[in-house]
Amino acid sequence: MDFLLSQNNLYILIIALVSGGMLLWPNLRKSHGSSGVSVPEAVQLANQKQAVFIDVRSAEQFKTGSIPQARNLPAADIQEKLASLPKNKPIIVVCDQGRDSARVAATLRKQGMADVFSLDGGVRNWASGGLPLSKKA
């Protein structure tokens, strides 16, 4: 027991515990209801389950570059257009950095939609992953 309580070893123990916590944090966050998906997970959902991308940015931002096949539905209009969203396919909500999409995804889940996800990092993360963006005229 003296080994653990000596000054130098105590620092090592604290560093090990903090490092372990930091490694476990992403998994703990996902298990507590967070529905964010990474870019590779989003691509996999789109390819395997025909997930639909809903871009909740403004029309002006959408035109500057969006995920191919994404549908623009500004966050302000989401309640009005709720009935037009597909019920039988997963939905991946996208915004610029991931904050607005997480909020909209939570709103959609509260409205009873089951397979709703938010793209972690948004369109910026998509582009930094080397995936294409389409520009609308």
From TrEMBL:
Which CDD domains does the UniProt record give?
A: RHOD
Name of the protein in question:
Rhodanese-related sulfurtransferase
Organism of derivation:
Paralcaligenes ureilyticus
Q: Which residues form the Rhodanese domain?
A: 47-135
Q: What Gene3D superfamilies does this protein map onto?
A: Rhodanese-like domain
* InterPro entries assigned to the protein according to its UniProt record, in alphabetical order: GlpE_sulfurtransferase (IPR050229), Rhodanese-like_dom (IPR001763), Rhodanese-like_dom_sf (IPR036873)
Cite the GO molecular-function annotations of the record. Answer: transferase activity
Top-level taxonomy? Bacteria, Pseudomonadati, Pseudomonadota, Betaproteobacteria, Burkholderiales
UniProt keyword terms in alphabetical order: Membrane, Transferase, Transmembrane, Transmembrane helix
- Kindly list the residue ranges recorded as spanning the membrane: 6-25
- The keyword Repeat is assigned to this record: no
Extract the Pfam families matched here: Rhodanese
Entry keyword Glycoprotein = no
